[in-house]
Amino acid sequence: MQKILSTLLLLTFSLYGSIDISHSLNDKPFKASHQVYVKPHDNIRLRFKFKEAKEIRWYQIIPNTSKFYKNANHPWEANAYKWTGYGKINYRKVEIKSFRNKSIVEITPEILEANRPHNSKYYNSKMGSFWFEAEVVLKNGKRMKSVGFKDNSNKGLSPKVLRLSFMSDEGYIGYLSTFFNVPGIFGSMPYQSRNYIGIDCADVLIAASKKMNHEKNEKNYNVKMLVAKLKNKVKFTNKKGKLSKRLKWGKDFKRGDFVAVKYTENGRYAHIGMLYEDTNQNSILDAKDSILNAGPNALHTTTLESGAFSGTVVILENKDVK
How far apart are CA 317 and CA 176, in angstroms? Predict the structure, then answer.
């Protein structure tokens, strides 16, 4: 019977050419899933186990987040906002050499930090999403691998590639933090943000909410639509950290509320992010405080004095944050 099962397994490999990597959270039984959310203090192990393995290799697939990607023209380009087609994302496949010939491996921040790209300041080894591929050479010479690097289309990497998403906490901000390391794509589509392929400033805020609430995000929101949809708490002007109003964290707004900006008085609201940190802990919203935002780059923090949110600013209520 064992011989028959082994033969069927090899036939399956021959027909389909790939098999899933399985995972175990906190020493629970291994199971297969394409997307795994890793909470604080979880330990995560991966398995790619074969009785007839001659060689096993593990790889991390890393998108290039140092580059601007776009599906539509940027606001500063001619024919602004015009659809240009899906922007092709660049990926690298890097072997994790310390995992060579191991069927079970543990993913740690140290392992993820060791693969930090030299050309990107947007790579976060402690939070965010990471993609993996494994390959085995059997004793009979057959080479099998999981879905991986070569499985990408004009829309981006296949959602069937194993993704581990590490979160800072189990609330909205934690779900938003799982979008670190996802490329910024101007004009990203819900399919791309939902599957952690690419994000824009508004899309990532909606995608985090939908992930937290286990909903699909099929509607494509822009900044103007979110300003109209969400409760406006307070409006003020910001000139590189000089605010027209004195606002207090926890009183006039809360951590996790959204902040949108229009750069000219008669312009449209063009950018949005999430109020992230009272950096100097003085309880007052000021120049050094930070906003978590995406676009045109990957998800990153921006201070109020940096200029990205200089203009007419409105704080919007985020009901997902209590």
Answer: 16
